[in-house]
Amino acid sequence: MILSRRRFITIAAASMLPRTAQAHEWTGYAFGADTSIRLDAPDETADAALRAAIAEIRKLEAQFNLFDSTSAIRELNRSKALNAPDKMFVDLMDHADRAYRDTGGLFDPTIGAMWRDMASGGPVSLQSMGWDQVRFNPSRISIGDTQSITLNGIAQGYATDRITDLLKKFGLQDVLVNIGEYRALGGPFQLGLSDPRHGVIGRRQLSGAAIATSSPAALFVGAQTHIMHPARTAKWSTISVEADAATIADAFSTALCLANLDEINAAAQHPAIRRIVIVDKHGDLSTI
């Protein structure tokens, strides 16, 4: 069973680029969710930049889209190994490994097996989980014989960063990219922070940074929220992380849904993290 969306995207743009002759917007669908790119550029530059961005999104989906049965990640989960993997797959595995270590194991892509077992209604095999069973290098990626991984807690952020960096090469300075998470060049862009239980609960201005938001109760697998861990349950209604890069924001927003307050305070000391917003189950908002 493939879930329709890893999580409910709770950041919605509250304002857009000024409607000038140079304002352009593309909307599409990737990784099982609506996506968008907003930029300010001459028509010719914008057209070339958006064509390149769309092509890059399709390449990213070919690697990491769990909703595509032909993607590399689906092949890894079927055959338990990828030989001669794409460089971007190895790169994202390296980011995932750092996120696993930086969060003390709260970010763990091997919960894909837990998703699989719970979605099928069968017993959960804890032996199928554990990042220590995963091996990767430029020549080969492998997982345990009963494992299944998901990179949905980081792949959208990674894709957002790849697209933002690509657009930057076109000389663009006013850009808002949303490939499941948001990253801005220039700004400020005003974004609304919402929670699936409590609605819109705040606003943030984003300038030259990224923001990612996770809400466990946005999607359930049986009686379990979609943000899972073999030893933890979700403690917060929503976690939103602002960081230098969307890859980091994405991984931490996922992991910190499982963290206690001391662990969140420790995560806030990460050099790339700028702000963490916590919404508890009563709808009360705190900022670290």
From TrEMBL:
It catalyses: L-threonyl-[protein] + FAD = FMN-L-threonyl-[protein] + AMP + H(+). Its EC number is 2.7.1.180. Its cofactor is Mg(2+). The keyword Transferase applies. One of its GO terms (molecular function) is transferase activity. The keyword rRNA-binding does not apply. It comes from the Bacteria. It is an enzyme of class 2 (transferase). Gene3D superfamilies: ApbE-like domains. Keywords: FAD, Flavoprotein, Magnesium, Metal-binding, Transferase. Pfam families: ApbE. This is FAD:protein FMN transferase. It comes from Marivivens niveibacter.
